[in-house]
Design a protein that fits this description.
Layout (H helix, E strand, L loop, with lengths): L21 H10 L3 H12 L5 H5 L6 H13 L3 E6 L2 E6 L1 H19 L5
Antiparallel strand pairs: 1-2
């Protein structure tokens, strides 16, 4: 028996209306599951194009720890890096975060409508 009259289980795994797939959402949420990474992301959002040294100057984290967290954020696509010798500058991927926010909102709205299952 199909829920809500739909029988295509694969449609659940496909990209949502706004464009974020379940895998993309999971990668972003996994990267944001650490409070230090959220603090780093907030700092980058408030101070565009800052470097790792700028972040270690305001957060109680070692440079190596900040670098590891930045790698996770970059791998998830949340933060972009621009290399301008002699340093790297980081900035938030605003398009990705807006897309994730929209997809999450749509997801929560669909779960809370009470019209299905």
């Amino acid at each position: 028996m199909a829920c809500c009259g739909k029988s295509d289980d694969e449609s659940i795994k496909r990209t949502s209306v706004s464009g974020s797939s379940s895998a993309e959402m999971a990668a972003v949420f996994a990267a944001l599951s650490n409070s230090a990474r959220i603090d780093i992301l907030r700092h980058i959002a408030m101070h565009r194009h800052c470097g790792c040294k700028d972040i270690t100057g305001v957060l109680p984290l070692a440079q190596s720890t900040v670098s590891q967290h930045l790698k996770v954020l970059i791998d998830a696509g949340i933060v972009n890096v621009e290399t301008v010798p002699p340093r790297s500058r980081y900035h938030v991927n605003e398009a990705l975060l807006k897309n994730i926010a929209l997809t999450t909102s749509q997801f929560l709205d669909s779960c809370c409508e009470g019209t299905c299952c």
